[in-house]
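EI: anyone free to look at a 246-residue chain?
SC: sure, send it
EI:
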Amino acid sequence: MIEANVKKKKKVYEGKAKILYETDKEDIIIQEFKNDATAFDGAKKGTIKSKGLINNQITAHLFNVLESYHIPTHFIKLHSENSMLIRKLTMVPLEVVMRNIATGSYVKRHKIQEGEKFEKPVLEFFLKDDAKHDPLITREEVLAAGYATPEELRQIERYTFKINAVLRAFFGRRNLQLVDFKLEFGRTKNGKLVLADEISPDTCRLWDLATGEKLDKDRFRHDLGKVEEAYAEVRKRVFMESSSNE
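SC: here you go
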């Protein structure tokens, strides 16, 4: 059993959306969510009121949902309104993107119309490297560079397709369309591959099923207005239903 009564120690990492702190437990990290918002490789910066709290709560809830479907995650428990306790991992340096509907960079790369639904979900890998602007990377390049083993890559693919199925159904019951999302994975000290990072309106594109209204970070990216209201609306819908599995 993991001891969850921990004391915050020094900051070990600060990114665009989160800060990580060591604790007095070697294998436990505090992940703190920020209200800061960035887009376009940090070229656009701002603040979204209560974003840290909302993303923390949504992520915790969705990780619990995924755990109930046998998807292992780094999540242990909530620590405060805007932070959680997570397992310390060695991260796989990939952003794993699953697309159900064409939008964002996919539309630009393939010169197609936004909103086109894929017959089957499209899985893409991006190298997590800010200096190189997180380039698209093929499966073969991932293996050649040793970013993941063949078995790890197969496991990442299996988990991602399963996560997509679970979350599409979850959000669909809340009148939200899961357009696409980004995942990250890491290894525990025993080498077990688990889901890491977060799942939130920062990392998912979510459209209202009836109206197509965008309720995610795209409202900040593209100056659509009502950004805080969109995040609050997603949180409201995520917690709308409650059952043994959700």
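EI: The chain has two domains: 8-87, 90-226.
SC: 👍
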